[in-house]
Design goal:
The complex is a heterodimer of chains A (235) and B (303). Chain A is of the alpha+beta class. Chain A is 16% helix and 52% strand. In chain A, strands 1, 2, 3, 4, 5, 6, 7, 8, 9 and 10 form a 10-stranded antiparallel beta sheet that branches. In chain B, the strands form 4 sheets. A 5-stranded mixed beta sheet of chain B has the order 2-9-8-4-5. The radius of gyration of chain B is 34 Å and the shape is elongated. Classes of the chains: A alpha+beta (235), B mainly beta (303). At the A-B interface, helix 3, strand 2, strand 3, strand 4 and strand 6 of A face strand 10, strand 17, helix 2 and helix 3 of B. Strand 3 of chain A pairs antiparallel with strand 17 of chain B, so a sheet runs across the interface.
Chain lengths: 235, 303
């Protein structure tokens, strides 16, 4: 019942006026996304690991913030772009006494900074030509995630004497759906374009599957399956 | 004639009544490590400079003006003409200025146990061994001509214009709020305390090791690293105020650092294979791809 109701609302919002670019609309060739979501690395996926240290030490996922910039190079039947994004997430937990397992007040933490280089395709034809304010999109590309782990505010040491920090390579695929917010207040959207050059504003949700384990090498597995939500500004 | 004299006295008296003296400090000192006009025991023997300004509604009936330094918060009476110490300004300015200002160099000299002042004046005395706060005032006053044309004995106005606090009072004895055993370290927390700007810790280990005056760097918690696990350490802390007066040392607390496991240690205990470091070769690939971004952007079609 809820899905037909949602579709009904979308069709009701669909406006013929949105079908064609508004006269005087500025050029658009880029997009900025600001988003956040829960990121939980799949540490336990590492081959040979006998437990799940992430779940033992930390409670739940990390809050991931990301900023993505897209440069469009194709605008016809939808738009295609190359995107670069940078994110940040951290998670704190308590250390435990080695031989007793009793929790101490000393903190331990894991930090990640996911960097992504992505190809993006947005099917915005329906939004621009038919006035349906929904834009499905897909993304895919490379991920590089610098990480480090601390104990007592200092970077921990690995058994080999190296510092507990590094970077992990991987790849990802993302699917999402964006809602064109211009339909809620077309005049305001047009003013936003004429005053600051933002053609369209979207509210979106996306699902990402990322395999970030240095392409199968042994070590910390920072792969994830996660949702993010955010705002996008096309200009 | 008697009437004329009486009239002159009344006129002069009313003029005297209209006189006023207000004094302000327009600038701070420039001595090292001096804040809020507080002199510490460490400044004994140094010169301490304040900038003062005196606003006086003077007129031709003003016959004497003095600005001087007094010990304490009471300016006392106007110094005698033949007094040679503690005087800054003596007499009436050549012109009837209404604003007088200048820099005052106060030599904070160690107490010599008497009135053995050097030729430089004004001087304050301080005794590093005195556990007593001393205050000094810079005062101003002037006299008026009386009806007979003599410089009157009555002081028309007197006001303390500046106070310097010679602070020797240490902060109260602190108490360690919390001590936490960490891996090869201890964390010591103190409660904030009025007038305290920093805490310093002394650490003594059962193995004979000792560290003194480890600063909290003006924070409330100190992490003392580089300790040996399973060795008991005795920690005591004292407080310091802004002028480095030190409190009595706190009661000591004992704690023993222990080996702890963080995320990475737990991971390695579970046979984790991470060796750290970055995959440099792949990094070059990503940078190359990022380099393509502007090229692709140029090809973008604008609508």
């Amino acid at each position: 019942m809820k899905v037909p109701l949602f579709v009904g609302c979308v069709l009701a919002l669909a406006s013929p006026a949105l079908g064609k670019p508004l006269s005087g609309e500025s050029t658009r060739n880029a997009m900025i996304e600001v988003k956040m979501g829960s990121y939980k690395p799949q540490i336990s996926n590492e081959a040979g690991l006998t437990g799940n240290p992430y779940d033992e030490v930390f409670d739940g996922g990390m809050l991931l913030f990301e900023l993505e910039f897209e440069r469009q190079f194709f605008q016809s039947f939808g738009s295609a772009a190359i995107a670069f994004s940078v994110g940040y997430a951290e998670k704190y937990g308590n250390t435990v006494v080695s031989n007793t397992g009793v929790a101490t007040a000393e903190k331990t933490a894991l930090f990640v900074v996911p960097l992504r280089l992505l190809a993006v395709y947005r099917f915005d034809y329906a939004a621009r030509e038919l006035g349906i304010p929904l834009v499905p999109f897909v993304k895919g590309g490379l991920v590089y995630t610098p990480w480090w782990s601390t104990k007592g505010g200092r970077v921990s040491n690995l058994a080999n004497g190296a510092k507990a920090k590094g970077g992990k390579w991987g790849y990802q695929g993302t699917v999402g759906l964006a809602f064109l917010m211009d339909v809620l207040e077309p005049r305001l959207a047009r003013d936003f374009d004429t005053s600051v050059g933002v053609n369209h504003t979207y509210l979106f949700a996306e699902y990402t599957y990322a395999k970030v384990d240095d392409f199968g090498k042994r070590g910390l597995d920072l792969s994830s399956k996660h949702f993010t939500f955010g705002l996008a500004f096309e200009f | 004639m008697r009437f004329l004299l009486s009239a002159m006295v009344l006129i002069m008296a009313s003029a005297a009544g209209a006189q006023s003296l207000t004094v302000t400090v327009t600038g701070a000192d420039d001595a090292d490590d001096v804040t809020d006009n507080v002199i510490t025991t460490k400044q004994c023997g140094q010169t301490y400079t304040v900038r003062w300004q005196l606003n006086a509604q003077l007129n031709p009936s003003t016959c004497d003006l003095k600005v001087w330094v007094a010990k304490g918060t009471n300016c006392g009476s106007m110094p005698e003409d033949n007094a040679t110490d503690k005087r800054i300004i003596d007499g009436v300015p050549d012109e009837w200025e209404t604003v007088l200002q200048g820099d005052l160099d106060l030599l904070v000299e160690k107490d010599k146990g008497g009135t053995d002042y050097s030729t430089k004046f004004p001087q304050l005395t301080c005794d590093p061994n005195t556990k007593e706060d001393l205050k000094f005032s810079v005062c101003g006053a002037f006299k008026m001509l009386d009806g007979l044309g003599n410089c009157g004995s009555a002081i028309a106005a007197i006001a303390p214009i500046y106070q310097i606090h010679y602070d020797t009072t240490p902060p109260a004895k602190p108490a360690i709020d919390k001590i936490t055993a960490l891996d090869s370290a201890l964390s010591v927390s103190m409660k904030a305390q009025d007038g305290v700007t920093d805490f310093l810790a002394n650490i003594k280990g059962a193995d004979g090791s000792e560290r003194k005056d480890v600063s909290f760097d003006k924070k409330s918690t100190l992490r003392i690293g580089g300790l040996t696990n399973n060795v008991e350490y005795t920690v005591s802390v004292y407080a310091e105020d802004a002028v480095k007066n030190r409190s009595e040392i706190s009661d000591s607390v004992k704690e023993t650092p222990v080996q702890t496991d963080g995320f990475i240690e737990r991971y390695q205990l579970m046979n984790g294979g991470e060796t750290g470091g970055c995959a440099v070769s792949a990094g070059g690939s990503l940078l190359s791809l990022i380099g393509l971004l502007p090229l692709l952007a140029r090809r973008s079609r604008r609508r």
